[in-house]
Design a protein that fits this description.
This protein is mainly alpha-helical. The chain contains 6 helices and 2 strands; from the N terminus they run H-H-H-E-E-H-H-H. A two-stranded antiparallel sheet has the order 1-2.
């Protein structure tokens, strides 16, 4: 079985072509090219907790700092942590990788 991205697991519909993309916009996790491959995800699909503007509980979340505590309680976060084990990429490393890729252009 392949590892799911957050939009597949949560069925939020905010991925490109998703049922809620027009209404709520495309989720930053589904559109973050610089996060490709992190925790074996597509785009930011397995690093959503480290990205601002993702959807949780029917609400768009704010900054990384304001949402991380809630994200760490999320069933999807716990699933990725369990599936990745020792290879799990922590939030600071995710943000660092994304910033470096964007700086490189």
């Amino acid at each position: 079985m392949s590892k799911k991205n957050c939009w597949e697991y949560k069925q939020c519909g905010r991925q490109p072509g998703g049922v809620k993309a027009g209404e709520l916009g495309i989720c930053p996790a589904a559109d973050e090219n610089a996060a490709e491959g992190i925790n074996c995800g597509s785009k930011g699909g397995r690093s959503c907790w480290a990205l601002a503007g993702t959807l949780c509980g029917g609400k768009v979340q704010g900054t990384f700092a304001s949402k991380l505590a809630n994200c760490m309680q999320c069933d999807f976060y716990k699933l990725v942590l369990r599936e990745e084990g020792r290879a799990f990429t922590q939030s600071r490393e995710i943000q660092s990788r994304i910033a470096e890729k964007k700086k490189q252009g």
